[in-house]
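Notebook p. 47: complex prediction with zinc ion.
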Amino acid sequence: MHELSICGSIADIVQRSAGGRRVETINLRIGQLRQVVPETLVYCWSLVSAETPLAGSALVIESVPVRIECRGCGHTTELGALPILVCGACGQGKTTVVNGEEFLITSLELAEV
Ligand SMILES: [Zn+2]
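Predicted complex, structure tokens below:
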């Protein structure tokens, strides 16, 4: 499963960044083009983090909508859950993806020492 390997990578990065402190919350920003289901990711996180120093930490996922810019008219269109890369103003398909490909750990909240 796609989400399990993502959780493995998150765990590596977070453990390196935390420097041995207990992690309470991990804030993520994920673009909708990534095809990640937030609920599945949270579930996989509970499996991956169990019995590691990250057990009990929470993933907070901010889902970034897909936005495209039309190369013809310059209009920016925000797409829904099923991204179809067509301009909302003039209907042409020559577009540039502005948002939606993000996959970032934006911040960690660590326990007080
Ligand atoms: Zn257009």
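Notes: The CA atoms of residues 31 and 100 lie 4 Å apart. The first helix runs from residue 2 to 18.
Next step: compare against the earlier run before touching the bench.
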